[in-house]
Design goal:
Helix content is 69%, strand content 0%. It is mainly α.
């Protein structure tokens, strides 16, 4: 999802009403490519999503979600959901009466290294 946030920012900059922001971001993405942080992020995102740089403006949250659904195996999706729930417990967004903090941290570390 971090790729989507980076890409969303890049697309907003490329279509900005501010001519300086628009010019610099378009130059960074379309001409300087890997020599600029903007271009490197854009190219990384396009490579990750398997699309052409010229279609960068078409990327949105629904597109990224569809790519994720197609690429991630069901077993991996289940594992990601477990990690997400454990992180919610760790940062006290939710509770799990059967786990103390040490168990929660251990479970997250174990899930991430399997």
């Amino acid at each position: 999802m971090a790729e989507y946030i980076k890409l969303s920012f890049i697309v907003k900059c490329m279509s900005s009403d501010n001519s300086i922001v628009c010019t610099v971001s378009n130059h960074g993405v379309l001409f300087r490519h890997m020599l600029s942080p903007i271009g490197a992020n854009a190219i990384f995102c396009c490579n990750y999503l398997d699309m052409f740089l010229s279609h960068i403006g078409r990327i949105n949250k629904q597109f990224v979600w569809r790519v994720y659904q197609q690429r991630v195996l069901i077993s991996e999706r289940d594992k990601v959901n477990v990690i997400k729930e454990l992180l919610n417990v760790k940062f006290t967004f939710s509770t799990a009466s059967v786990l103390d903090m040490a168990d929660t941290v251990f479970s997250i570390e174990t899930s991430c290294t399997e």
